[in-house]
Design a protein that fits this description.
nine-stranded mixed sheet; about 30% helix; about 475 residues; eight-stranded parallel sheet; alpha/beta
Length: about 475
């Protein structure tokens, strides 16, 4: 690999920004120095004058090629190229355990799908859907294989949903080996009843997806998951928090000293339930779970980010075609595949409508999209930071680049874009994956297969506030 020097850029960390040059050798950041410090080094020089130099984003919430009833979400090949061009260099994807299968089989299936098909690095969570004594006993083995985070769905009855006993048992066992349990917090039992009632009464349009998943359903499940975590004294991570009430449940628990953490997604910050009421069947494009909320929740989420209630932002990228896949629910909203896209544009959106609108600083953007996700998912300091010894996953971000988001020009594989028509100001110009130049002048120049599986480590940041256990690990 060619030695490289990124010079003249503004390097951004979660706490400050400074001018400096970066020396890259053998896939890692070899040194960071003052302007011109590496001028005598025999290297390829990349001029970052006027650009922010930020860590490659770590999207800890993606669903590539995910099975959905009778179909799959968009594949690794298209979505990871789109991710790279958007400034994401690592994803953590959800390996879904099939009924009757082991956790190792889920890990192996996802690695097989990703192998030679991913433009960027990846790690894995496991979504446990079928728990028995053998699976409980397998949790330590999953951690040994470098998969330390476990997803449990409290929603999707008769599919992925687990009961409270399963959640309790996984929390307890996961804690013993330094794992982190992540929860999709919605009351699936009640949602199932509401959906049945509305469909039977002829209310089948996309907007009823949100009506049958009210925010009280999310808040109740969040509160219940937090209570079970408290009983086991285990950390818990609540994914895709959509509004005020579930955020408040996390805030209260954290104020009481409990190790509870949360994530929100860009679509909850920038979209609202009016999109579900678009004419005809257009609202189906915006069917995701939890659903989009009333616009008033957006500021509440920004407040939760500012006060530390929520520690990360993840895309929940789970992309389907509108015409071929979302249309499966044209006569019944409950059959619309849940999920949307966004991995290509999330950093652009967060910079344009977060940083530029003074909802957060660029330092906070780095913290929420790179450093904290890497810490909680057990990937730090290999990922999520620009520091000596870390992987040289680096984005040169142009704060002045302007364009309008359009599905017709996107690299994502779906036939629509969540953020169609949004004008953005700020975009990745160059992206380096472990020192390899994979995006140049906002064009993808890498090749599929460059991405590698990255093992996560136990005892990540979620354990910082947990008392020392009998192994002496915090």
């Amino acid at each position: 690999m060619t030695t490289k020097v990124i010079k003249n850029g503004i390097i951004v960390t979660p706490v400050h920004q400074y001018k400096g040059d970066i020396l890259i050798e053998d896939e890692i950041v070899k040194a960071i120095g003052k302007k011109g410090e590496f001028a005598a080094v025999k290297a390829e020089f990349i001029d970052a004058d006027g650009l922010y130099v930020i860590p490659g984003a770590v999207d800890e919430h993606t669903h590539m090629s995910m099975p959905s009833p009778d179909t799959y979400s968009m594949p690794w090949e298209t979505e990871t190229i789109a991710a790279a061009v958007g400034g994401t260099t690592t994803i953590v994807d959800f390996a879904i355990q099939e009924k009757g299968k082991t956790l190792t089989e889920a890990i192996d299936t996802w690695k097989k799908n990703a192998n030679n098909n991913t433009a960027i690095d990846y790690s894995l969570h496991i979504a446990i859907t079928d728990l028995n004594e053998d699976i409980i006993a397998e949790i330590p083995s999953a951690v040994e294989q470098g998969v330390t985070t476990f997803k449990l769905f409290m929603a999707y009855k008769d599919d992925k949903m687990v009961d409270d006993a399963t959640l309790y048992r996984v929390l307890k066992q996961s804690k013993e080996v330094g794992g982190l349990v992540m929860v999709h917090a919605e009351n699936g039992d009640v949602i199932s009843i509401l959906q049945d009632e509305y469909v039977k009464s002829g209310k089948t349009e996309p907007f009823y997806h949100a009506i049958t998943r009210p925010i009280e359903i999310e808040a109740e499940a969040t509160r219940r998951a937090i209570a079970l975590a408290n009983i086991t004294d285990a950390p818990i991570f609540i994914v895709h928090v959509s509004g005020e009430e579930p955020a408040e449940e996390i805030r209260k628990a954290r104020m009481n000293g409990q190790a509870v953490f949360g994530e929100t997604c860009p679509h909850y910050l920038f979209l609202d339930d009016s999109y579900l009421q678009l004419p005809g069947f257009e609202g189906a494009k915006y069917v995701c779970s939890p659903p989009l909320r009333e616009k008033t929740h957006q500021q509440k989420l920004w407040n939760a980010i500012a006060d530390g209630t929520l520690q990360t932002i993840g895309t929940d990228h789970c992309s389907f075609n509108y015409k071929e896949q979302k249309h499966r629910g044209i006569d019944d909203f409950s059959k619309i595949p849940n999920g949307g896209n966004g991995i290509e544009n999330w950093l652009q959106m967060l910079y344009s409508y977060g940083v530029k609108k003074e909802n957060m600083t660029i330092e906070k953007l780095v913290e929420l999209t790179a450093t904290n996700p890497a810490k909680f998912m057990g990937l730090f300091p290999k990922k999520g930071t620009i520091s000596v010894g870390s992987d040289a996953d680096i984005v040169l971000f142009d704060p002045n680049k302007k364009h309008t988001i359009k599905a017709e020009t996107q690299l994502q594989g779906s036939d629509y874009n969540f953020y169609e028509g949004f004008t953005i100001e700020g975009s990745a110009q160059h992206v380096f994956l472990r020192g390899e130049h994979i995006v140049k002048d906002d064009k993808y120049i890498g090749h599929l297969g460059q991405g590698q599986f990255i093992e996560s480590k136990p005892y990540g940041a979620a354990y910082d506030s947990i008392r020392t256990n009998d192994k002496g690990v915090v």
